[in-house]
Amino acid sequence: MILAYLRHHLGRAAVAALAAFTLLPHAGVADVRIKDIAFFEGVRENQLVGYGLVVGLNGTGDSLRNSPFTEKSIEGMLERLGVGNLSEDRIRTENTAAVMVTAMLPPFARHGSTIDVVVSSLGDAASLRGGTLIVTPLSGADGEVYAVAQGPIAVAGYAAQGANASIVEGVPTVARIENGATVENEINFELASLNSLRVALRDPDMTTASRIADAINRALGPNSAQALDPGTVQVDPYGKGNSIPEVMSAIEGLPVEPDMRAKVVIDARSGTIVMGGNVRIAEVAVSQGGLTVTVKENIEVSQPQPFSIGETVVVPQTDVQVEEVQTRFTVLQGDVSLQRLVDGLNAIGVTATQTISILQAIKAAGALHADLEIV
Question: From which residue to which does any coiled coil extend (predicted)?
Fold first, then answer.
């Protein structure tokens, strides 16, 4: 009846527009795969680092006077390539930059596979755009070389400079090389040598760990898994007739409903506030206001009359204005949901910066039942 009335008096376009604002029913936390919230202990990446040179820069490289290590590196590289002793000659090139090269070696990386690398300037180079990284060994924490990097680099930022002005967009002294390193040494890790598996949660939580253990027990059989602590679930795969890789494949695809802690994350620099759905507050009264003081300085010049004795003086004129914002108290009821909390803050008419101050004050008063993290 209502839709027919609206269609008759407002038209079909208006009815379609009203239908677009229909509220959807609230959906609970969706099930996620175990592989998306946890990983198997021992199956991890390893950090690699190396020191190298980027050549081919268009005059934007290191100034050798301020970066003596770059000059020494150039001399050593040329000597290894057969160029004579250059210790008595002064190198004046500006097309080379010393860089640190970092990469992540993924688990089970094999000989000949490639990985991405990040190249970062070590000296005072203005930009790495257009450069090429020379062969750079990448070592692990044990000092062994696991990969070798080389190739043209890609810089996301740029820098331009004139006689009286300059502009910099992004960071032109940091670059990437996609598939820029080749794996030369493997990390020995055999799954068949494991007697048991351990599932490590990325965000430790006892409730989530218990749910993961229950899901594994339903899939592999009773007493196959148990939660050791909020971040670890131990799995005994033997006696089930499956190999370790088959058990891992069966576990990582199991759906689990993770539990979330009540948490409020605040980025004070950008004014971003993120609140989880489990955030609750006790009954509290909030008033937000402020006093704005504006001071303006106007400079006036007092000029003497013609043919008179006097001097020109500068007379400053100061204008001070005070503006006080009218405030009111808003009572936020106890144990409210996230939606009502946001509605209550919006009712006061506060900005993002003021909301941050309010949340900090509510937390200090002991009325915010959530972790408050400021990043």
Answer: none
Would you give the distance in Å from CA 169 to the centre of its chain?
19
Dist CA 240 CA 348 (whole Å) = 61
Which value, in Å, is the radius of gyration of the alpha carbons in the chain?
33
How confident is the model over 237-277, as pLDDT tens digits?
765 556 788 888 889 889 999 888 888 888 877 778 887 77
| Dihedral, 115, 121, 127, 132 alpha carbons, nearest 10 | -40
In a domain, 40, yes or no: no
How far does Cα 22 stand from its chain's mean position?
A: 35
Tell me, yes or no, whether 132 lies in a domain.
yes
Coarse DSSP helix, strand, coil percentages of the chain, rounded to the nearest 5 percent: 25, 35, 40
Same domain, 252 and 269: no
Which one, of 95, 172, 80, lies nearest residue 127 by Cα? 172
DSSP one-letter string for 174-205: EEEEEEEEEE-SPPP--GGG-SSEEEEESS--
Confidence band, pLDDT 50/70/90 cuts, at residue 72: confident
177-199 confidence digits (pLDDT tens): 999 999 999 888 777 777 778 89
The confidence score (pLDDT) of residue 233 equals: 93
Domain boundary among 183, 218, 237: 183
Residues 125 and 83 in one domain: yes
Query: Minimum mean pLDDT among 23-32, 79-88, 331-340: which range?
Result: 23-32
Are 298 and 245 part of one and the same domain? no
User: Which residues are CB-contacts of 220 (< 8 A; sequence separation ≥ 6)?
Assistant: 235, 237, 240, 247, 250, 251
Whether residue 32 lies inside any domain: the answer is no
Domain C-terminal end among 131, 162, 183: 183
Asked whether residue 287 falls in the same domain as residue 326, the answer is yes
Distance from C-alpha of 134 to C-alpha of 155, rounded to nearest angstrom: 16
> What is the domain count for the chain?
3
Contacts of 63 (CB under 8 A, 6+ apart): 94, 123, 124
* Structural domain boundaries, residue 164: 46-183
